[in-house]
Amino acid sequence: MIKDMIDKQVIELKKLWANKRMLTFQLLNLAMIVFSALMIWKGLMFVTKVSVLLYWRFSRRIDCLFDDEMGWVDHNGRMSWRKYMLRCMLPLEDRLVSESPVVVVLSGSMEPAFQRGDILFLNNSVEKVDVGDVVVFKIKDRDIPIVHRILKVHQKPDGHVELLTKGDNNRVDDRGLYAPGQLWLEREDILGKAVGTLRYVGMVTIALNDYPVLKYVLVGMMGLFVLTSKEG
Amino acid sequence: MHTVWVRLNAVVFFGLTVLLCLSILAALSKIGHTRYHQPKIHKLALNQLRSIKNHGGVDRALLSFDLHADMTPAFHWNIKQIFVYVVASYKTDTNPNNKIVLWDRIIEATDPPSAKIIKEENVFVKYGLMDQGAELRGREVQLQLMWDHMPLTGTLYMGEQAKDTTSTFTLPHDYL
């Protein structure tokens, strides 16, 4: 049956090659799919930005959240709608948005709450992280971010915080995971606070990471099907 | 091309869409739950201060507390577990705000109903009350119960004991 299928695909491809007009049409089709995926991705990023700014506009805490050299806010710390619209068109500072708004849980250190393969939605626009918050942090010179809960918060007079984290399912706190000699995390180490979860979706990512060949197989198959499939 | 694969593809994607929609609906279904269902915290107070010592330049106090709380109302069908924790907060000269978890417990939705009612006396802390420096003596410490709702799918949100029902105690001025 599979051989049958492959034969069919080959025949379809040969037909396509012979009919250049059809080939162009199918290639354009493929391009359309790729570009719409890109558009959705970029669109989502824009929506995130707009909502982050909107949140700040109403929470009236904009003044402390970005360096206001351009005079976006008035002396009350408020931003007019016109300026808000303008601000949305400009890129947002890196530290104000999560590096990635979604992470996949890779370890069982937060079980039973989060299991390997769950995805977490992050929010990094929160100015303060508090004790008990589940946060995603990254240790310097290490690639993989870690999802754990904040166990201790020590706040200095200037508002600067020093944090200690621990996995719910771990026996000890995270000092052993930090860089050698590092005792505390700081706000900058935190990529975001976990605000939501969706189960199992991350399994796909884990599978793709564990078996990189899968990526090419999947993309290749999808491309082939788009090229050879006919409407109706 | 009405092959098996096209149909399989359609079924899988339709299935995934339905699952996603159901997840979103499940996530939305908790709206308004906390307004009408709040856990009842009857008591959270210091029972006994066991020790306060200096370990290598850092102050550490060990203590036990009484905790009576009914966490049952916090559960609803989209809750997988509640993470309950006791927070000690205090002020020192170097740190105007310190918050430290002294004790925590995971209550799963599948646990028997009796596990959702915490009624314990003289609970020893899981994590010592440890300062960043040596400034613990003579400080006033507030104990507050907090909990994190961890859903099957959807948003995480916190709950905490009302500030006016929390208890405080003062640590002695000398090491003990």
From TrEMBL, chain A:
<keyword id="KW-0735">Signal-anchor</keyword>
<dbReference type="GO" id="GO:0009003">
    <property type="term" value="F:signal peptidase activity"/>
</dbReference>
<protein>
    <recommendedName>
        <fullName>Signal peptidase complex catalytic subunit SEC11</fullName>
        <ecNumber>3.4.21.89</ecNumber>
    </recommendedName>
</protein>
<dbReference type="InterPro" id="IPR001733">
    <property type="entry name" value="Peptidase_S26B"/>
</dbReference>
<keyword id="KW-0472">Membrane</keyword>
<keyword id="KW-0645">Protease</keyword>
<comment type="function">
    <text>Catalytic component of the signal peptidase complex (SPC) which catalyzes the cleavage of N-terminal signal sequences from nascent proteins as they are translocated into the lumen of the endoplasmic reticulum. Specifically cleaves N-terminal signal peptides that contain a hydrophobic alpha-helix (h-region) shorter than 18-20 amino acids.</text>
</comment>
<feature type="transmembrane region" description="Helical">
    <location>
        <begin position="21"/>
        <end position="41"/>
    </location>
</feature>
<dbReference type="InterPro" id="IPR019756">
    <property type="entry name" value="Pept_S26A_signal_pept_1_Ser-AS"/>
</dbReference>
<keyword id="KW-0378">Hydrolase</keyword>
<keyword id="KW-0812">Transmembrane</keyword>
<dbReference type="InterPro" id="IPR036286">
    <property type="entry name" value="LexA/Signal_pep-like_sf"/>
</dbReference>
<feature type="domain" description="Peptidase S24/S26A/S26B/S26C">
    <location>
        <begin position="95"/>
        <end position="179"/>
    </location>
</feature>
<dbReference type="InterPro" id="IPR019758">
    <property type="entry name" value="Pept_S26A_signal_pept_1_CS"/>
</dbReference>
<dbReference type="InterPro" id="IPR019533">
    <property type="entry name" value="Peptidase_S26"/>
</dbReference>
<keyword id="KW-1133">Transmembrane helix</keyword>
<keyword id="KW-0256">Endoplasmic reticulum</keyword>
<comment type="similarity">
    <text>Belongs to the peptidase S26B family.</text>
</comment>
<dbReference type="GO" id="GO:0006508">
    <property type="term" value="P:proteolysis"/>
</dbReference>
<dbReference type="InterPro" id="IPR015927">
    <property type="entry name" value="Peptidase_S24_S26A/B/C"/>
</dbReference>
<dbReference type="Pfam" id="PF00717">
    <property type="entry name" value="Peptidase_S24"/>
</dbReference>
<dbReference type="GO" id="GO:0005787">
    <property type="term" value="C:signal peptidase complex"/>
</dbReference>
UniProtKB/TrEMBL annotation, chain B:
<keyword id="KW-0812">Transmembrane</keyword>
<dbReference type="InterPro" id="IPR007653">
    <property type="entry name" value="SPC3"/>
</dbReference>
<keyword id="KW-1133">Transmembrane helix</keyword>
<dbReference type="GO" id="GO:0005789">
    <property type="term" value="C:endoplasmic reticulum membrane"/>
</dbReference>
<protein>
    <recommendedName>
        <fullName>Signal peptidase complex subunit 3</fullName>
    </recommendedName>
</protein>
<keyword id="KW-0735">Signal-anchor</keyword>
<keyword id="KW-0472">Membrane</keyword>
<feature type="transmembrane region" description="Helical">
    <location>
        <begin position="6"/>
        <end position="28"/>
    </location>
</feature>
<keyword id="KW-0256">Endoplasmic reticulum</keyword>
<comment type="similarity">
    <text>Belongs to the SPCS3 family.</text>
</comment>
<dbReference type="Pfam" id="PF04573">
    <property type="entry name" value="SPC22"/>
</dbReference>
